[in-house]
Automatic annotation (TrEMBL):
GO CC annotations on file: nucleus
Role, per record: Transcriptional repressor that regulates multiple aspects of plant growth and development.
Primary location class: nucleus
Pfam families (alphabetical): Ovate (PF04844)
Source taxonomy: Eukaryota, Viridiplantae, Streptophyta, Embryophyta, Tracheophyta
Keywords: Nucleus, Repressor, Transcription, Transcription regulation
Positions of the OVATE domain: 32-92
Protein name per the record: Transcription repressor
Keyword Lyase: no
Amino acid sequence: MPLIKRRNNKVMSLSASLPDDVSGVFAGSTCVVMCTTDPISCLRESIMEMIRDVGGVCDWNDIEELVYCYISLNSSALHQVIEEAFLSFGSFPS
């Protein structure tokens, strides 16, 4: 049975895991499964939280790995939403 926590009225499950080939700055990250009615806002918030947690991104390879993590962990039905969330930033904090 997956471990489920409540934070800010969001139900989170810690049952997912990163792909084995993730080896960059996000390799030690914890995956959180969320249900939401506003996926773009939640993804934007999650992306920024991930970047803050590793102290910023150093180069394009870091962003590419983060995109890969989100794409590999989510169904193809969400891939366009993930793309929109990433592209909505325009640039990322370093």
